[in-house]
């Protein structure tokens, strides 16, 4: 499939919020929507919009951790519910990991996800380091995962 990705711009803000809301309550809690809105307003690192044949299908980014300079964190990876299970996640995760491998000193990547998506990351070589029940909101547990680059 001809996926492409490009850097997020402010003109993507409203569309991304709309798509994230379409993932509530299956993959995200309603309480996370304002958190994502704030995240987009103060990006901690690169964030990308993924398109298929010119149409938006998802987004993902990463940040470098000040407290662990050798670690990057995948953040806010999600897809339009109508476009899930078509390889988008593998496409953008692979692209971000390739970018991270070019950054001096970055040796590991981690992700904080939930029971909804942890198997996806497990399939891509991430190991589970911690689980915290009801971390994000009741019913959404934290699955902290890590991978050596």
DSSP strand count: 7
Q: Tell me the fraction of residues in β-strands, as a range.
A: 35-45%
Uncertain segments are none
Rounded to an integer in angstroms, the radius of gyration calculated over CA atoms is: 15 Å
Q: What percentage of residues falls in helices of 4 or more residues?
A: 25-40%
Strand order of the largest sheet: 1-2-3-4-5-7-6
Which quaternary structure do these chains form? single chain
Approximate shape? globular
Alpha carbon gap, first and last residue = 25 Å
Series of H and E elements = EHHEEEHEHEE
Q: Major β-sheet, in short?
A: 7 strands, mixed
Question: How much is the average pLDDT?
Answer: 93
Structure, explained:
A 7-stranded mixed β-sheet has the order 1-2-3-4-5-7-6, with helices on both faces. The longest helix is centred in the middle third of the chain and has 14 residues, at 88-101. The protein has helices at 13-22, 32-41, 88-101, 118-123; strands at 3-7, 47-52, 55-64, 71-79, 108-113, 127-137, 140-148. α1 (13-22) packs antiparallel against α2 (32-41). It is built from 4 helices and 7 strands; from the N terminus they run βααβββαβαββ. The relative contact order is 0.16. It is of the alpha+beta class and 149 residues long. β6 and β7 (140-148) form a beta hairpin. The mean pLDDT is 93.
């Amino acid at each position: 499939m001809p996926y492409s990705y490009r850097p997020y711009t402010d003109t993507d803000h409203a569309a991304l919020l709309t798509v994230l809301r379409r993932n509530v309550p299956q993959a995200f809690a309603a309480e996370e929507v304002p958190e994502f809105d704030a995240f987009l307003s103060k990006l901690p690192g690169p964030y990308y919009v993924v398109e298929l044949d010119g149409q938006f299908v998802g987004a993902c980014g990463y940040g470098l951790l000040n407290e662990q300079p050798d670690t990057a964190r995948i953040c806010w990876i999600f897809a339009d519910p109508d476009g899930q299970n078509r390889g988008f996640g593998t496409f953008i995760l692979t692209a971000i990991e390739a970018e991270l491998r070019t950054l001096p000193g970055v040796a590991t990547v981690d992700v904080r996800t939930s029971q909804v998506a942890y198997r996806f990351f497990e399939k891509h070589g991430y190991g589970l380091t911690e689980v915290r029940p009801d971390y994000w909101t009741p019913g959404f547990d934290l699955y902290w995962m890590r991978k050596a680059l």
